[in-house]
Amino acid sequence: MHMLDHFWLTYLYQPLFNALIWIYLNIAERNMGWAVVWLTIFLRILLMPFTLISERDNIKQKEVEAQAVEAAKAFKNDSVAQKEEVRRVMQKNHVSPWAKVFSLAFQVLVFLLLYQVFIRGITGERIVKILYPFIDFPGKINLDFYGTNIGNTHDVFWAGLVAIYLFFSIYLKETFSKQRDQSRVTFLFLFPLFTFAILWFLPMVKALFILTTMIFSDIISLIRRVLFPEKKAAVPAKASAKK
């Protein structure tokens, strides 16, 4: 257990904390809120190769799903055969989600590390103990972000802003989706509400981190759609010949 704590502190917590302080001093003009925003952006840029692979895999997955639906039409009078055909096509053209899983896991790790930073508190004594020698001591940390202390919990505005952004983000994606059912409608409303409830209990900085990473992801997706639009599923030609 001691080795695990040492690994967490030395190789995960301490590097991220020092990076945050360096950004706070050199880029964010001594505003910890903007330091978190910039840290999130830099981490997402670092993960860009995995993000691009994930976007490519999403396109492939949709194409495979469209192929499966088209293949199942040949068995329109046999629901069991339809399911088997869909399963066969999906298994044959399986798309591995490893890049997306790695990217999400990394962001969850950063989420937990930032949570620990602000739960422990950013005070002079704590900073001195884990600050690298080449990083200047920042003095008293400015936690104000447009009138809100980013270390405070029970912040309705920022938790609500994330929930609203999430709602419209899901809504827009569902608008362009051909698959609509009751479960998707339920998800549209419940997931933003659940997110709001969780963020309301956590320090406001968590809402800032999540909002930044969602906006970054949506920008990348938008650029991908403009540069590499999704191909429409090809409809197989009817194999009918007139004699």
Structural class: mainly alpha
| Residues in β-strands, percent | under 5%
CA-CA gap between termini: 78 Å
Radius of gyration: 23 Å
* SSE pattern, N- to C-terminal: HHHHHHEEHHH
Main sheet attributes: strand count, strand direction, barrel closure: 2 strands, antiparallel
pLDDT under 50 segments (min length 5)? 235-243
Roughly what is the average pLDDT, rounded to an integer? 82
Overall form: elongated
Helix fraction bin = over 70%
Helix segment tally: 9
Number of domains: 1
Strand count: 2
What is the quaternary state of this protein?
single chain
Spatially, the strands of the biggest sheet line up as 1-2
Protein name: Membrane insertase YidC/Oxa/ALB C-terminal domain-containing protein
InterPro entries: YidC/Oxa/ALB_C (IPR028055)
Organism: Candidatus Magasanikbacteria bacterium RIFOXYD1_FULL_40_23
Keywords: Membrane, Transmembrane, Transmembrane helix
